[in-house]
Amino acid sequence: MLQHMIQDTEALIALPRQRVFFQTDEQGRIVMCNDLMTEFFGCAEAVVNGTWFPGLAEEGERATAVHLLTGALEGCPDTGYVAFNTPSGRKLAQVTLVPRFQNGQPAGTFGFIHDATDRVEKTRRLIESERQYKELYERYQFVSQATSDVLWDWNLETNEIYINQSFTRLLGFELPTRHVSELWLENLHPDDRDRVLRKQLAAVRDPGQALWEDQYRFFHADGSLLYLQDRAVIIRDASGRPLRMIGAVHDVTQRTVSEEAIRLSEEKYRLLFYQSPEPKWIFRREDLRFVEVNDAAIDHYGFSREEFLSMTVIDLQPPSERERVRQFLFSDFMPAGRMQNLSRHQTKDGSVIAVELTTHGIYLDNGYHVLVNANDVTDKLALERKVLEEKITVQKEIARTIINTQEKERSEIGKELHDNVNQILTTAKLYIENIGYYPTQQADYVSKSAGLLQRAITEIRNLSKALVTPVLYDIGLRATLDELIGQYRTLHLFTVHFSFDIAEERIENGLQLTVYRILQEQLNNIVKHARASKVSIDIRGESERLRICIADNGVGFDLQQARRGLGLHNMKNRIEVFKGEMEMTSAPNMGCSICISFPLS
């Protein structure tokens, strides 16, 4: 037996040429080791010898080393992994201890150490990699089911493509039984196909490119057009050769359509801004500086675009108003909504113009701004002032005419009373006073006095009738005009042809009185000046207007001289009150014709 043990020992000692070998006594102290042992621990053999073997192990690993040593000393060989701290770093080794016998009794152990650091680390990394792969796969499966995007995995070596269920939900196609790339190419928009394939192929062929991205149009299974965003990562080997592409397809139809609508809207408003015939500009609310101006503003104010963009809106004000406008803009200026106000601006040549400003608050990328539309109302205000001045002049002229008319009427009344009625009453008074002196002629004087008094009464009645407003509202316009014309017919100076063809209720009361006074005035003029034998009066309704024509065959007159007459002036004033129009035709020995037109309300 002893011979066999010696042979076994020699055989074991020969192994250390390939492996770390050592020998311990029955206490576990190292009594012999080979060169590989000293290389493994980085120290001389003299240092190793005499060391308790478990003491060489890492502190947390000593229990394992003790367990292996105890088993071997008890006659049971054992193998385990023990970590050691060496000068070259921590090493994980496979340790095998077998019993060494002497005289049939365990006298120590033979030990073998195999450095398994690299193998164990590779195994650990493999296990960790498998764990991570499993987690990623489970996560991928979860995301694949939860997302609305189409996820795809293209094996570039086998040309196999995996797609998730979103392919059906998003694009409407059932998961294809034939190759998915054929279906994708068939429904890719023809105008996008060449570009997409060219970019994709270029990305795959470029070893330095790890990503591919593109947007294209794609036909849904129902024929509608989708806008898709496709992104993928390109997986390559160490040499850059492409192995796989893993990507996701996202539906951006709504976003693309909205962006296009916004772009078209912005383009439309941009054209409206720049091509507007009215001056427009945008200024920054923070510092009142111009940020944009259209061509109409450049033409109207005379400043170049560069000059405008170097100015503030305060610079457009006349110097005397700049401080007031500045305070207004920074204090009372309403930043939201729409506002209108009238202002004065100064152009580049120094001219001051009146402008009506309409402002709108708008938000741009770099803050709050104000859009301004400027309407030059300089000429409009000048015209309004001129019209107002003319109205005031006309009103003064009307007032002057009214006063002159009143004075003329008073003079006429005084003349009639003095030269006619007063003389009649004076004669009647003489007859009455002489009754006492001439008793025999009493009856004759009384009769003559009564006749004179009746004549005075008639004259006064005629005078009152000419002055007092007629009772046309009681008997109507047509009847009142008939009565007026009848009075002139009794004079037997001329014949009168009168026609009336309009419903009286279409003529308002004030206009009816004006028609009466105009006809009365013109008949008086004919009696006094025309020496006519025929008079024609025509009153009728034409569409939405009242038309009056008065014509005579008298001596006529020169229109230039007639325009200065008071009677004609009075007639024009009455016509203007009701926004009427008058046309007069006359010449010496050619009679006279007056046509008047009023709008009917």
From TrEMBL:
PROSITE patterns: HIS_KIN, PAC, PAS. Residues 129-207, 265-337 form the PAS domain. It comes from the Bacteria. Residues 412-601 form the Histidine kinase domain. Residues 212-264 form the PAC domain. InterPro entries: HATPase_C_sf, HATPase_dom, His_kinase_dom, PAC, PAS, PAS-assoc_C, PAS-like_dom_sf, PAS_fold. Keywords: Kinase, Transferase, Two-component regulatory system. The keyword DNA repair does not apply. GO terms for biological process: phosphorelay signal transduction system; regulation of DNA-templated transcription. One of its GO terms (molecular function) is kinase activity. SUPFAM superfamilies: ATPase domain of HSP90 chaperone/DNA topoisomerase II/histidine kinase, PYP-like sensor domain (PAS domain). Pfam families: HATPase_c, PAS, PAS_3, PAS_9. This is PAS domain S-box protein. It comes from Flaviaesturariibacter aridisoli. The lineage of its organism: Bacteria, Pseudomonadati, Bacteroidota, Chitinophagia, Chitinophagales.
